[in-house]
């Protein structure tokens, strides 16, 4: 019987170097963790998106470290291969000590192998502080849901030249500070490709175009059951994979088949298609 080797940071770097796309998906419980791992998902994220798709809130800001630890503990034991990342929720990394304490809980109690935080160059000291203490970090740029009350709306970021240049600089600073992964959310496809080309670490996108090293979606969006999708507010970058599985007449394993379809399309480059991507405004630099 073939032994399943768990993925780690070095393997994700090797996938990038080999040109293999990295397929990522959120999960919040044991049942979906098993399906995602079996379907070939490379990276599983315990996202603070649970505040919206599990708790039914309008933002991610009420999510606590206790919430993330709880769901991470439910997922971690059931991943044989997939690499587990857990979100540091709102204000849980506001100081160096809080960031370290929160990361310790997510990794020791929750079983995560990496933590994710939002913010640009202003988070470089936090990233470095965690990194030199053995905590792998994913830095999140672009649309940052934890900043929604400052941003004012969930909208595409980096469309103006100055904002795009600032984001490129942020990505470089965070990688130099020790970030092992970058996640780009809701930015023009050209900017996503440019950041990826200049990044020394793998770049994962959600609404960041096809030119990144991997893709991530919220599980409930992929299945067409998240509150925003069921209310008719489907984000441009979301693709519902359930209709394809149903059309093929899959029996008993519709959800796993839908997840496997997503993995295949990420790996082949079929997802995201142009209709899932954001363009730069006319006249802007790529």
Automatic annotation (TrEMBL):
GO terms for cellular component: cytoplasm. Pathway: Cofactor biosynthesis; (R)-pantothenate biosynthesis; (R)-pantoate from 3-methyl-2-oxobutanoate: step 1/2. Mg(2+) binds at residues 48, 87, 118. It is found in: Cytoplasm. Coiled coil: none annotated. 3-methyl-2-oxobutanoate binds at residues 48-49, 87, 116. Transmembrane segments: none annotated. Its main location: cytoplasm. Its EC number is 2.1.2.11. It is an enzyme of class 2 (transferase). Homodecamer; pentamer of dimers. This is 3-methyl-2-oxobutanoate hydroxymethyltransferase. The gene is panB.
